Amino acid sequence: xxxxxxxxxxxxxxxxxxxxxxxxxxxxxxxxxxxxxxxxxxxxxxxxxxxxxxxxxxxxxxxxxxxxxxxxxxxxxxxxxxxxxxxxxxxxxxxxxxxxxxxxxxxxxxxxxxxxxxxxxxxxxxxxxxxxxxxxxxxxxxxxxxxxxxxxxxxxxxxxxxxxxxxxxxxxxxxxxxxxxxxxxxxxxxxxxxxxxxxxxxxxxxxxxxxxxxxxxxxxxxxxxxxxxxxxxx
Amino acid sequence: xxxxxxxxxxxxxxxxxxxxxxxxxxxxxxxxxxxxxxxxxxxxxxxxxxxxxxxxxxxxxxxxxxxxxxxxxxxxxxxxxxxxxxxxxxxxxxxxxxxxxxxxxxxxxxxxxxxxxxxxxxxxxxxxxxxxxxxxxxxxxxxxxxxxxxxxxxxxxxxxxxxxxxxxxxxxxxxxxxxxxxxxxxxxxxxxxxxxxxxxxxxxxxxxxxxxxxxxxxxxxxxxxxxxxxxxxx
DNA sequence: CCAAAAGTGTTACCTTTACACCCATGC
DNA sequence: GCATGGGTGTAAAGGTAACACTTTTGG
Lengths: 234, 234
What we know:
CATH superfamily of the largest domain in chain A: Nucleoside Triphosphate Pyrophosphohydrolase
Radius of gyration of chain A: 20 Å
CATH class of the largest domain in chain A: Alpha Beta
Distance between the termini of chain A: 46 Å
CATH topology of the largest domain in chain A: Nucleoside Triphosphate Pyrophosphohydrolase
Order of helices and strands of chain A: EEEEHEEHEHEHHEEH
CATH architecture of the largest domain in chain A: Alpha-Beta Complex
Number of domains of chain A: 2
Number of helices of chain A: 6
Oligomer: homodimer
């Protein structure tokens, strides 16, 4: 029987940075940690990787358990592998960021899992290196969102251009010129204008759009320039 | 004593996709695997992560051991975490891509470690999922190289514009217009023209340039547009 | 009618692309 | 002097940014 002699073995966890958008601010889904150490402190949604599952599977499972949702946009972005990042025992964490339509998130589960949305700039202190993870995830989200139409994952099926613009402004902490933004978005071919208007935030009303899913899938990998004065900072 | 009960533990390895450039083609540094299973088959440079080192440390160590080089450009890009990717025992692999100036690589070590450069398109079959890793690393390199001036890491201190262009063409499998390429590169402010010329490949000779390291460091994170018809495909 | 938000138009400017052209020199 | 690779010039087309302007409608 071949074996890798006496190499050390470690625990492996996944942690998910779950972004949501309520129409105004970018939010983060956090849970109260249910095990020692640091029990009852705020933490990212995470869990250990089981023997029969891939890290991707583990992340999907953890998200399903905490939000009840399937088919969430999920992207592995970094491994945190410092020997002492968990004080109890060496644990590597594979970090994923997730984008979910906050409206799909059933509020009921909130109570079950002690999960809660926080505006990203008003979040509590997190355990271990989770604060760093959030900062890294945010940079990565900005980076990716400037080049790929990823932010649609955060919006409901029907959305308006002003909503979309607010989302881009929230993610990137910047003001964007409406005229240029609309032209740019319309020119991507990703938007399908609906007849219906959203009158909740103005008298004139803003047309609803939906995503052209076929084009979204086919063009997803292309590099767009969705931001003015593109200068990211990853 | 707090502990994480009976969660499973796994081996953790790092694997490095090491790119080099000889002035003509993009190359990959491979080694003959020295342990069972698949002993003597070609493999990426890798090793297990020791108890006292981070994954980054482990990657640096593995590279140092196999190339004798310090200060290599190294970037973690993905974790491979399928349960059965190693047939002997579950092992997660943290993949890094590395860029080295092939001229700095001391040929002598080649013999010591059975490492060898292969043109990227004429490489042998690799063990496990290493073929996938190479494909992924190459995509990632293209992506990053289109937006950040990362390819200078592959060049010697002095280089010419035609060399730089050949490198971009090799990485991206495309022909690039010389005039436009030169103008774009010169406009970045990253190049310092030297008085000396390289006459090895033409009668007229091509001016040597060196990298403006200060500008390289300060502007590294900015998003350039270093390729024509930018349309990547990560 | 007016305020306020949605959305369009206009223009100056810059970048990109394609390609023609000039330059230097060893043979 | 001419072939060869190095390097510059140019003009058309397209994209970007700034901002003025029009539209709609509830109060």
